[in-house]
Design goal:
7-stranded antiparallel β-sheet; Glutamine Phosphoribosylpyrophosphate, subunit 1, domain 1; signal; about 575 residues; globular; about 20% strand; about 30% helix; single chain
Length: about 575
């Protein structure tokens, strides 16, 4: 969760005392592990909210598969965590299909309005698209994503899949800690927009921790989807309501934009990291940044570099800086821009970039290579079933409560993903009508020898590639189990160039979670790094690892969230 992200920079300042990140005394495992992995054979679900996990478990127990259960969990997430996701947002997924023994990628992100042009945005004197209001709204792709997944892989009728979310939206649920933490500030920021108070603060104030919250309008909308399918959203009354609302409030998203929306089935791309194939989706998302970073880091022998050491953190951050310059220059909607994906994720290119890293000094000036973000609020979930199907799914409104634009009587917020276009002419990610924006949300998957090994993701805006790389390294280089890999203190870095046009700012700032000793921080500062604290900037992780030998799923959930891993 990044909405209230705070960074405190320690530019060479001495801080008294030491940090520790020790869980209670456990019999086994790393000292920072908060719990053991959950193990089961028949099914596994890992989400950021227990009610979402239980909805998916119920679908699995009643004969549904992993795809059905993932949709049920995502629908429930939109009810119980509306501050970070919902049907007004976009979706990406990677599916391991046990029948064909293949990975399938789905890009269910929406495009910009036909009627909004770069000239119109320039006429308004904008250098960036604002984060709230009608201008950053792009077509919501989530619902089409559900029905594309269901059409290709599902088996449970959609009314049964959505029944849990409909019931809790209508009857209510107690607001949990993380949602309550952010809800009030978001109401203060977004309460001026139409319908926000009626839907999200019906008593006149944001619900507090433990208070019951109901969203009957969302229940009615979900019920229409259950009965009428995806066309009820994109071509029926819901689309007409959105069109009318946007016109009334100075927006550009129209019925045509919704009616012509399509998702795309795409092939995931991969790199091999020390014998494991790590899979991501190609742009318009930032997934290949993970593959680029891993290629750079593979050139170092981490069996001789301890986890959490200055050498580990320095190399990790310097690799990130190099890759994020490529991310800023190249990543965009591939229907509009030439993105040299295979060149960017090639090992020889990584070797050239690695040669730019000074092992003793933080780089203050980094440029994009020449081969032949921003905060965000997101949910990630993963599901596996008894047949061996696995789903890695991520979904988001972008910032908390998205654009703040809540269409009449529908009960959800439209996303503000359009904030992530550049308004500088001639760039890959420059705004254009009917174009997908650069996207931060990325699902991931790992295979080994052609077998599924792990489905995982780490939500959290521009932190996501860093989070993915840390999970992979924690398991493969440092021998952690999936829960330990997620609980380990994390490394973030800010200050790189962005696809929205901002340029890098010197060495940037490393922010470290509690758990790194002062000696490490001091050594990093000697190398020229700025080091500080980060509040809420370290993402949220869920994972399912598959033990092929024993045919057992190992589920892990994010200790920084209010989630649950459960199996049966």
């Amino acid at each position: 969760m990044h909405t209230a992200t705070t960074r405190i920079v320690l530019a060479g300042l001495l801080i008294a005392g030491a940090w520790s990140a020790t869980a209670q005394d456990r019999l086994t495992g790393k000292s920072f592990a908060t719990r053991a992995v959950v193990m089961a054979r028949n099914g596994m679900v890992c989400t950021s909210h227990p009610l979402s996990t239980q909805a998916a478990i119920d679908v699995l127990r009643k004969g549904g598969n992993a795809i059905d259960a993932a949709i049920a969990a995502n629908a429930m997430e939109g009810v119980v965590e509306p501050h970070v996701n919902g049907i007004g947002g976009d979706l990406f997924a990677i599916v391991w299909d046990a029948k064909t023994r293949k990975l399938y990628g789905l890009n269910a992100s929406g495009r910009s309005p036909y009627s909004l042009t770069l000239a119109e945005l320039k006429k308004r004197g904008l250098t960036h698209i604002p984060s709230a209001g009608p201008l950053p709204v792009s077509v919501p792709g989530c619902v089409d994503g559900w029905f594309e997944l269901h059409k290709r892989f599902g088996k449970t009728p959609m009314p049964d899949i959505l029944a849990h979310a409909i019931r809790y939206a209508r009857e209510g649920y107690p607001v949990h800690d993380e949602a309550a933490f952010y809800w009030g500030s978001m109401i203060a920021r977004m309460g001026k927009f139409p319908n926000v108070m009626d839907v999200y603060a019906p008593t006149g104030a944001a619900p507090k921790r433990g208070e019951l919250f109901r969203n009957p309008a969302l229940a009615n909308t979900l019920d229409k989807l259950a009965k009428g399918g995806r066309d009820a959203f994109y071509k029926g009354d819901i689309a007409r309501t959105i069109d009318t609302f946007m016109k009334k409030n100075g927006g550009f998203l129209s019925y045509r934009d919704l009616a012509e929306h399509t998702s795309d089935w795409i092939d995931p791309v991969s790199t091999n990291y020390r014998g494991y194939d790590v899979w991501e989706l190609p742009p318009n998302g930032q997934g290949i940044a993970v593959l680029q970073m891993l290629n750079v880091l593979e050139g170092y022998d981490f069996s001789k570099i301890p986890w959490g050491s200055p050498e580990h953190i320095h190399r990790f951050v310097e690799a990130k800086k190099l890759v994020f310059e490529d991310r800023a220059k190249y990543y965009a909607d591939m229907a509009f821009a030439n993105v040299p994906v295979q060149d960017l994720i090639a090992k020889p290119y990584a070797a050239k970039r690695r040669a730019l890293i000074n092992d003793e000094r933080a780089a203050a000036s980094v440029e994009a290579g020449n081969p032949a973000l921003k905060d965000g609020d997101t949910i990630y979930l993963t599901v596996a079933d008894s047949d061996g199907n696995m789903v890695s799914l991520i979904q988001s409104n972008y910032r908390g409560f998205g654009s703040g634009m809540v269409p009449d009587v529908l009960g959800f917020t439209l996303q503000n993903r359009g904030e992530l276009y550049s308004l500088t002419e001639g760039q890959n990610n420059t705004y254009a009508p009917h174009k997908r924006p650069f996207h931060t949300i990325i699902p991931a998957f790992i295979t080994k020898d052609g077998q599924p090994f792990m489905s995982f993701g780490v939500m959290g805006g521009s932190f996501q590639p860093l989070g993915h790389v840390q999970i992979v390294m924690n398991m493969i280089d440092f021998g952690m189990n999936p829960q330990e890999a997620g609980d380990a203190p994390r490394i973030d870095h800010a200050g790189s160039s962005e696809p929205t046009g901002e340029r890098s700012t010197g060495v940037g700032t490393i922010t470290l979670e509690s758990g790194y000793p002062y000696e490490t921080i001091r050594a990093l500062m000697v190398k020229g790094h700025n080091v500080g604290y980060g509040l809420g900037s370290y993402g949220g992780y869920q994972a399912i690892m598959y033990d092929a030998k024993n045919k057992v799923y190992h589920g892990a959930t994010e200790s920084r969230k209010d989630g649950q891993a459960a199996g049966f």
